[in-house]
Specification:
about 45% helix; 2 strands; 4 helices; alpha+beta
Length: about 100
């Protein structure tokens, strides 16, 4: 279960490791959200997966994937309905800026 979402703070689950990770990245989460959103805007209708975005921004996927959740909760991105394989060979949602 997610804690109550606040756009000014990173999303986290209500366990100690998740809360620690959210606190650790809180100083740069807003900047990363902005970079993710800008990347998706630049991708247009083609969109991007979290893995593709992490690669394009040269950031760790573990720092990027939660930003997608935050942007979705803030209604700034949407699932395009498309799916692409990620680096692990799994099917990943393709997101677009709205």
């Amino acid at each position: 279960m997610f804690t109550e979402y606040q756009p000014t703070s990173p999303a986290s689950r209500s366990n100690d490791t998740s809360l620690f990770a959210a606190a650790k990245i809180s100083h740069c989460a807003a900047q990363l959200r902005a970079q993710v959103l800008e990347h998706l805007r630049n991708c247009g209708a083609h969109g991007a997966t979290p893995d593709e975005t992490a690669d394009a921004l040269q950031k760790d996927i573990l720092n990027i994937r939660p930003r997608f959740t935050e942007l979705k909760l803030d209604m700034k991105i949407a699932d395009s309905g498309a799916r692409r394989k990620n680096s692990k060979g799994n099917t990943a949602k393709v997101w677009i800026a709205i």
